[in-house]
Write a structure and sequence with these properties.
single chain; mainly beta; five-stranded mixed sheet; three-stranded antiparallel sheet; 0% helix; globular
């Protein structure tokens, strides 16, 4: 698989991180309409969202998760820890 077609997105925020389970995902205007997917460490989809400017109260159980933001050929992943 050739990943050279993907462009890194660095302007989305996940806060607070670490979190007690309630957190916010915030993207810039250029990524509104993209897709946010939250995975557990087994690679299973836990939650999926169509991105608006912010998603609040994305509650999760204790653990470590990966949040992936996709729009067009742009993709970025960040880790969140729920304690």
């Amino acid at each position: 698989m050739n990943n050279s077609r993907f462009t890194k997105i660095s302007d989305f925020l996940v806060y607070p991180n670490p979190s007690n389970g309630d957190f916010t995902i915030q993207v810039s205007d250029s990524f509104v309409g993209g897709k946010a997917t939250i995975y557990n460490l087994l690679g299973q989809v836990v939650k999926a969202y169509s991105m608006v400017e912010t998603i609040q109260n994305a509650t999760l159980e204790k653990g470590v998760y990966l949040i992936e933001i996709n729009k067009g050929n742009q993709v970025s992943t960040k880790k969140i820890i729920i304690h």
